[in-house]
């Protein structure tokens, strides 16, 4: 897509640079036999930064999904490096964000999404991966990020449901999960990250709604609760057209996804988004966050990053398809619950 070709270049350059850095880090580690001592300050800083990164595998998912939204196919060399890195991050049925880390839920779900985007189901051991995800469920129905954690979170609960759904499985104790998600709703209509503790947030509202949708339990929310939530979501648009995650915050490109996707989950048609939000103003805000060199930043004038590039483009896709319809939309259409382009096998 010529209009967005600079974003495709940005994504390719990000992955190329990232894999070069990881290769350099591997060489540094091998030269020093795993210790930071003796590497020198700059080399030690590089090694410490890369191995401390907790979202490397998710960043690859953000890049691959952004490329799919743009209709761009990454080079064979890059795709091979993605597969090799994914295999290095495997920890039995789980996946880690970095080969030196332990497996965790979000990285495992990112691996599942990457395998779906690459159309490479053989990269996963479905039985072992499902077993790992299920092992992270607490008695109250919620899920945690890693083995040994004790407090559930809406983000992890949605991720577990999504990952299992993509593997063709269903989580255990669905009544408990649905009840836990419903109890995350606050009196203002928004959802927090866990019941009765956290302020409403657009990201947590999305996670709770998407989780309920994937469980076919959206009907468990009351009509009054859905009306309050629609009002709360409708108030997320800021002056200038952007969306914020909670009251009093500035607009940020990533919240275009969390807010619009949550609203779309409540109304399967496209018309509701156009009634709730000024979609042309939102499109203008996201475009103002785009760098001339490619990529999307959180705010106009900031540096772009893969996280905001993906969620900014995903939100822009929802806005385009709602405002213009599929025929004139410039980006592929997103599934608002699975957070993947529609039409993947």
Automatic annotation (TrEMBL):
GO cellular component term, pick one: Rab-protein geranylgeranyltransferase complex
A GO MF label: metal ion binding
Cofactor: Zn(2+)
InterPro entries: PGGT1B-like (IPR045089), Prenyltrans (IPR001330), Terpenoid_cyclase/PrenylTrfase (IPR008930)
Pfam families xref list: Prenyltrans (PF00432)
Gene3D superfamilies tied to this protein: 1.50.10.20
Keyword annotations: Metal-binding, Prenyltransferase, Repeat, Transferase, Zinc
Domain Prenyltransferase alpha-alpha toroid: start-end pairs: 50-339
PANTHER family xref list: GERANYLGERANYL TRANSFERASE TYPE BETA SUBUNIT, GERANYLGERANYL TRANSFERASE TYPE-2 SUBUNIT BETA
Protein family (similarity comment): Belongs to the protein prenyltransferase subunit beta family.
Protein name: Geranylgeranyl transferase type II subunit beta
